[in-house]
Amino acid sequence: MNVNEVPQDARDFRDGDKVRKLVYAVDKDGKYTGVNSAGWEAENEATRQAWDAVDEALAETEAKVKAGQLSPVAYYMQKCLMDKALLAKYVGKWGWQVSRHFKPSVFNKLDRSLLEKYASVFNITVDELISFGKK
Amino acid sequence: MSRLNFQHQQHAHCESGVTANLLRHEGLQQITEPLAFGIGAGLFFAHIPFLKVSGTPGTTFRSLPGSIFKRVTKSLDIDVHTQRFSTPGKAMAALDEVLESGKPAGMLSSVYYLPYLPEAFRFHFNAHNLIAFGKENGVYNISDPVLEDVATILPEDLAKARFAKGTPEPKGFMYYVKNVPANLDLAGAIQRGIKKNCFLILSPPLPWFGVNAIFLLSKKIRKYPQQLTERKAQLYLGNIIRMQEEIGTGGAGFRFLYAAFLQESAEILKRDDLKGFAHELTAIGDEWRHFAYSAARQMKARKTDLVSFDELGDMLHSIGMKEKDFFTRLNKIKW
Hints:
Chain A is mostly helical. Chain A has helices at 41-66, 72-79, 84-91, 95-101, 104-107, 112-122, 126-131, and strands spanning 21-26, 32-37. Chain B is α+β, with helices and mostly antiparallel strands. Chain B contains eleven helices and eight strands. In chain B, the strands form two sheets. Chain B has a six-stranded antiparallel beta sheet, with helices on both faces. A two-stranded antiparallel sheet of chain B has the order 1-2. In chain B, helix 9 packs antiparallel against helix 10 (272-301). The relative contact order of chain B is 0.15.
């Protein structure tokens, strides 16, 4: 890649345009040099797609929470970009226990200390956690 | 506590960048990022279909996290301290002590918990390297090599980032330079770095690492249309592109960075053959870029009429053949 070929396609989503990363390119004398790049269309598309996938899954889960099929734990887990295994590690439970907590009937009976643990991992208050999807 | 007189410089890759910045602070200006990357044998390729990362097969262009700093300092006989911690409290107290003693400290962290980074990049990626070089008014001064400027972070955020869970777990990993020798065996270190990297690319006898993995991905990618839903296939392609080009590789999955290393080494060692190798690797890097560009077109089109998956497989096969030949010859040069 030559210096004049370094793409400057700004990633205009989620503050992505705030970083101009460094890439290595060849100057007119054939020497490698560091050049700032605002982004590249190919890469931007891939990043945007990954976020779209997150948003789509989140919207689906939100609908299920509102319909009473899943608990808010499932929603906030996805919002924090976690999967079951990762969330289980953060709250110090097994994956199957977290799966149970996805059930609204089980979630409604969780004790305060576990709710606090979930809330702190999700960086929200217990109230926000239990009231999600109820309004 | 205050802020050290630390000179931040932006780099392409977090680990070679942190290594170069820490060594520069000790007066070793000659260790540029490409040299750190090459001496640390940072170039790699792995594709592990059964290791799923957020639902997509694991693909990487870099060697194991932590290996660059370790190899560079070992090869140049630089005295370092490295430590993991059992609790955030101990880890943060140890960091304060190091800063108090006048040393900047490198750390492993999770990108997700670094609020100063744009949201676009903040996934749960636990092998990001950064440097703390001061603490003023309760916030840490951070030199993050992928950023143009320095940043700040609250202690509680840094503690979260250092103790992120998942794979791998940083466990507060911290490292700093204790002493540097008066004379550096740069020539020897370059040679050892090249040997090591040729080994990493050519020799693993398993299908998931080195050039073998490029051929493996080439085979797998051809089957995407038959084996996956359209959506899944798009996500798989997207993940490969991101690993190759998103922040931190310097372009073409580190191939340009390694070519820059070979070019600098040619100057230092006065060897024209390395200059030729650098030139060749640039051409291979351009092929990687072409692959990413084509994969993105396929991903975006949502139709198989633009660039077929077979063509993507052909591109990867051609790249694999070229890298195999390239590193076989690089491995055989006489020192």
